[in-house]
Amino acid sequence: MSELVSTRIRSTAGKLGLPHLAETINEYTRRADEGKMGYLDFLDLVLSEELAVRDDRRFRQGLRLSKLPHHKTLDEYDFSFQPDLDPRKVKDLATLSFVDGKANAALLGPPGVGKTHIAVALAVAACRAGYSIYFTSLDDMVRNLKAAEAAGRLTNKLGTYLRPSVLVVDEVGYQPLERAEANLVFQVISKRYEKGSIILTSNKTFSEWSQVFGDEVLATAILDRLLHHCEVISINGPSYRLKNRLKALERDNDVA
C-alpha cells in the first residue's frame, strides 16, 4: 500500500471515529499480504478487530462507572473452601439468563463466605456481555436517597439505581432501617420489578427481613417483588477472611 493511500485511510478512519484502525492500518495490510487474503477476508479482519477494540473500550468504561469495589471473577473464587456450595448453581447464574429475563439473584450467608465476590463476578460478566451495571451497599443507597429527598432531587437520584440493567445491592441487613428509609428501598425494588435485574447479598434470612426493614408489611412487599423472579443461593460455610487471618497468625507463630 502506498504511503499516500495509507495516509488517506488513516485520515478517513479518524473522521469515522475509528482511531484503532487509523493506528494499525499498516499492520492489517501486512497481515493481509502474509496471509494472501482476498478483499472480503481483509474487510472481515478489519471489522472484527475494530469491534473487539470497541467492545473492550466499552467494557473498561462500564467497569469504571460501575462503582464496583474490585473486579474479581468466578475463576478467582475458591469453591473448594465452600464444599456445601454447588459450583453449578453459581455457574448457571454466570450464563446471565436471569439478567436476560430481568430477574434477580440473592446470595445469602454469614459474613466472609464470598457473597460479595460472587456478586461482583456476576456483575463483571454482565458488563462484559454488554449490560450496564452499578454497585452499591444498601446503606450507601439509602443515605444517598435520603440526601436527595431532602434536597428535592429524589426522582433524579432514583435514576442512578433504576437505569442500570444490573444493580448490585450489597450488605442487606447489616444495619436496621427506619420505616422511611425502608420505603425508599421499596421504591427502588418496585420500580425495577420486571424491568431490570438486582443482585443482592445479605447476612440475614428472608424471615429476618422484617427486622431489617422495621416493618413486616413493607418487608413483605419488598420480598414479594424481589423473589417473584429470583435465583437464591445460600452459602453457609467458613469465612475466607478468618481463614486468611488464621494463616497469617500461623506464619507469625512459625517466625516467632
From TrEMBL:
The keyword ATP-binding applies. Pfam families: IstB_IS21. Residues 101-234 form the AAA+ ATPase domain. Keywords: ATP-binding, Nucleotide-binding. InterPro entries: AAA+_ATPase (IPR003593), DNAC/IstB-like (IPR028350), IstB (IPR047661), IstB_ATP-bd (IPR002611), P-loop_NTPase (IPR027417). It comes from the Bacteria. CDD domains: AAA (cd00009). Belongs to the IS21/IS1162 putative ATP-binding protein family. PANTHER family: ATP-BINDING PROTEIN RV3427C IN INSERTION SEQUENCE-RELATED, CHROMOSOMAL REPLICATION INITIATOR PROTEIN DNAA. This is IS21-like element helper ATPase IstB. It comes from Streptomyces griseoincarnatus. The lineage of its organism: Bacteria, Bacillati, Actinomycetota, Actinomycetes, Kitasatosporales.
